[in-house]
Amino acid sequence: MPTKNRFLLNGLIPIFASCFLSGLLAAPKGISAAALVDLQADVQSLDSVLKALYESLTFPEGSGPDWSRFRNLFASATVPLIRTTPGAVLVTDLNGFLENFGLRIKSGSLNSFFEGEVFRKTEIYGNIAQVVSTYRKGVNTTDPRKLVRGINSLQLYFQEGRWWIASLMWEDESPANPIPAKYLKK
Predict the structure, then answer these.
(1) Contact 62, 149 (CB under 8 A)
(2) What does the mean pLDDT of the chain come to?
(3) How close are the terminal C-alpha atoms of the chain, in Å?
(4) What is the CATH topology of the domain spanning 44-183?
(5) Of 169, 63, 55, residue with least CA distance to 114
């Protein structure tokens, strides 16, 4: 290989790559250093990831989800988010989910949202994890009698000193599909 090309491969490309990656890892506009520390704390353990997932989506009337915190949990904007129902499967990516959720808030059909974990089963092998997390959620209500249950299924991996969500699927409980007792034990 000519000397000039070797210089480009060994000299400039790593420099450009470093600049590009440092730009990607820089704090998004409007996020303080303290918030970045909090975002980093959200991804140090599977417990902290699940806690942040539920807390970032939960919001009272007059407020909204914490999208910076939510986005920080996912490996990329192309991570699949899949909602299943007895009659349909909706497959989207992170950006599609955020857009759909945001449109529901703007339209007024979603004024408040609560979701919290009631049970978790975790399987870990090396740097990968499969988590089944049973939830209770309420749309426009905090009345325990009106909350519904369901299951989130997450695949995660550990890299660069943190956990990343690689996929998320969920289904609400229905009379035809009750949650098995093994996912309700505490």
Answers:
(1) no
(2) 85
(3) 64
(4) Nuclear Transport Factor 2; Chain: A, (3.10.450)
(5) 55
- Whether 55 and 38 have beta carbons less than 8 Å apart is answered as no
Find, among 99, 90, 91, the residue nearest to 65 by Cα: 99
Contact 57/70 with Cβ under 8 angstroms? yes
DSSP class of residue 99?
Answer: H
Residue ranges per structural domain of the chain: 44-183
pLDDT in the model for residue 22: 34
**pTM of the entire predicted model:** 0.80
Between the CA of residue 39 and those of 59, 109, 167, what are the distances in Å? 18, 29, 19
Beta-carbon-side half-sphere exposure of residue 85 (alpha carbons within 13 Å): 4
Q: Which helix (H) or strand (E) holds 171?
A: strand 162-172
CA-nearest of 154, 29, 10 to 81 is 154
Q: Where are the alpha helices (DSSP H) in 58-184?
A: 67-72, 94-107
CA distance 110 to 42: 26
**pLDDT for residue 96 is more than 60:** yes
